[in-house]
Amino acid sequence: MKPNLYAAMLTLSGLSEKEAAALHDVEVRTVKTWNDGRSKPTAKAMQDIKDVIVAQEQLAMYSLNRITGLVEKQGAPKVIDLGYPVHKAEAEALGLPTLSACMAMVARVAAMIPYEVNLVPQGEATGTPGPSPLGKIN
Q1: What are the extents of the domains in the chain?
Q2: Packing angle between helix 43-74 and helix 99-112, nearest 10 degrees?
């Protein structure tokens, strides 16, 4: 099977084919043909998916930097509460199109930290209003 960059990027983004179709403003069957390698995605579709991945990486780096700052101030934790959005509007406030795109970003953060992670709904992790993909150290 020939490598398919669009399929790899779609997997990395955490988006489903249906969510990608909405992002690209195309039919799901169009995304399926791109994902299967039967046709080539448009330049706009590739840029759309790249934009999601870049936003995820930026949020992940923000979260990792915040974790590092908290660890420096409070010491090594037993558990880190990592907040995740529960409503699409919260995902959009973070600059991501869907909840699944947010969870893919949260998974990146969890994979990169050497502490146990407790996933908690957004807001319960930070104790402060506003979007934040990271919470507190326990």
Answers
A1: 5-121
A2: 50
| Cβ pair 48, 89 in contact under 8 A | no
CATH superfamily of 5-121: Putative cytoplasmic protein (1.10.3100.10)
113 burial (CB, 10 Å; 0-12 / 13-18 / 19+) is middle
Amino acid letter for position 34 = W
Read off the pTM.
Answer: 0.85
Q: Is 69 left (phi over 0), alpha (psi -120 to 50) or beta?
A: alpha
Q: How long, in residues, is the chain?
A: 138
Are the beta carbons of 4 and 37 closer than 8 angstroms? yes
Distance from C-alpha of 17 to C-alpha of 3, rounded to nearest angstrom: 18
Q: Model confidence over 91-132: pLDDT tens digits?
A: 999 999 999 999 999 999 999 999 899 999 986 554 433 444
